[in-house]
Design goal:
The complex is a heterodimer.
Chain A lengths: L1 H7 L2 H7 L7 H35 L2 H16 L2 H22 L9 H27 L2 H9 L4 H31 L11 H12 L2 H30 L12
Chain B lengths: L3 H4 L2 H20 L5 H39 L2 H16 L2 H15 L4 H4 L4 H4 L3 H26 L2 H9 L4 H31 L11 H12 L3 H30 L7
The chains are: A mainly alpha, B mainly alpha.
Chain lengths: 250, 262
Amino acid sequence: MTGLLDSLGLAQSAELLSLSPPGWGGNLLRGLSHSLQIAFGAYALGLVIGLFGAYGKLYGGKVTRDLLAIYTTVIRAVPELVLILILYYVGSDIINKISAAMGGGRVEVNGVAAGIWVLGVVQGAYATEILRGAIQAVPPGQIEAAKSFGMPAFMTMRRVTIPAMMSFAVPGLANLWLIATKDTALLAVVGFNELTLETRQAASSTRAYFTFFLAAGFLYLVVTLCSGGVFARIEKWARRGQPSLKGGSR
Amino acid sequence: MIDFRSLMQPHRIVMMLVFIGIVVWCAFSLQWDWIPKYAPLALQGIWTTIWLLVVTVVLGFLLAVPLGLAQAVGPWYLAAPAKAFCTIIRGTPLLLQLWLLYYGLGSLFPQFPWIRSSELWPYLRQAWPYAVLALTLSYAGYEGEVMRGAFKGVAKGQLEAAKSFGMPRLTMFRRIWLPQAIRNVLPTLGGETILQLKATPLVATITVVDIYAVSSRVRSDTFIIYEPLILLAVFYILVAGLIALAFHWLEVRVLGTDRRTS
C-alpha cells in the first residue's frame, strides 16, 4: 500500500489526510458528521413544516393560504446565504430576548441547533411545494372515500393520503435531500465548523489546497451517490404495485 | 398576469394594509441614514451581480449544449466524461468548487514563471475570473443534465424528416434539433437561472464585491444588522421576479400560447 502511494507521488497527501494528528483526516470526518447531523435535522424539520404547509395550502382558510404563498415565494426567491444570515440573527435575537426576560444572560447559540433551524425553515418552503403537488396528484376519490367512511382527518392522512402520495413525492424529496446536504456548506460562511470550513482551515494551515478540497469533494460525492442509491430503493418501495413508468410518455 | 379583481377580496385588502403598515414602520423606526454613504458602492455591487449572472448563464449554456448532446447521442468516450462532469458538479457544493478553484488554482499558478510573465497574469491575480469560471461550470453541469433530456425529447420523426430532405447535419441541428430542445425546456431554464442568481452571493467569499459583499461591509462597518439584509432580500426578490417575467414573456413569444391559461 505505502509502496503504491510512494510510486504515485501521493505519500505526502496520504500523510496529510491520515486520521490521527498531525494528519487532518479526523477533522474532515468530524466536519462531515456535523454536516450530516445538520442535514438530517434540517431535512426532518423541513418535512414537518412542509407537511403542515401543504395541508394549509390545500385545505386552509384564505388568510393561511396567502401567508403560506408569501412564505414559499419569498424563501425560494432569496439566496440561501442571505436567508441563513437573516434567520441566524433573528433566531439568536429571539433566544436572547427570551433569556433576558427570564432573567438570564446572553446565550451562546449551539451551532448545530442554529444550522438545523436555519436550513429547516428554508427546506420547509421547498417541501411545502413538493408535498402540495404530490397530495394534489392523489386521485380525490380515494380521500373522499376515506371521508365517507367517517375516518378522522388525521387517520385519513396517515392511512390514505401519505401512502398514496409517496410515489409522487419521493423524486422531489430525494432532490431536496441533496440540496440539504449541499446547503450545509453555506453555514461555513457564518463560521460553523462543518465539512467545508474544516477543509478550508486544514488547507490554509498546510497550504495543500488541492489535496483537501478534492478530498472533501470526494466525501460529498460519496454522500450524494449513496443517498441516490437509497432513494432509488425508497422510490421502488413507494411505487410497489404501480405500473412501471419506463417507456411511458409524459 | 395577476388578476386585479382577485386582489380586491376583503382579506387581501387587510393583508395589504398590514404590509403597508410594516413598510411604513420599517421606513420610520429603522435606521436608514447609512444609505447615501454606501449608495455608490451598492450600485457597483448590483452591477457586479448582474453581469456575473448574465455572463455565467450565457457561457454556461453554451457549454451545456455540447454536454447534453454528448450524453444524449454521443459515443461512450464522450458520454462518459460528460456524465461524470455533471455528476461531480451536481454532487458537490458550489462553495467547495469555488474555493477549490480560487485557493487551489490561485496557489498553483504563481509556481510557474511562464504564467507569471504572461499577459493574463494581471487578470489571474484577481478574484473575478475564478468566480466566473466556477459559476459557469456549475451552471453548465446542471444545465447539461437538463439539455440531455431536452435533446432526447425531440420527436424522432422531426429529425428523420430533416434527414430525408437531405439536410446537412449541422443545419439540421441548428434549425430543428436545438430550437425544439430549447423550446421544451424554457420553463426549466427560467427556474435554473433564478437558482444561478441565488448562487451569485457566494462569490463574496472570495473577495468579489457584489451586492451581498456590500451589505456585509455595511454590517461590519456600522453594526446595523437587519436593514441591509432586508434591502438585500428585496433586491433579490425583485431580480428573481424580473427573470421570471422575462422567461414568461419569452415562453409566450416562442410557444405562441400562454402556458398558464392553455
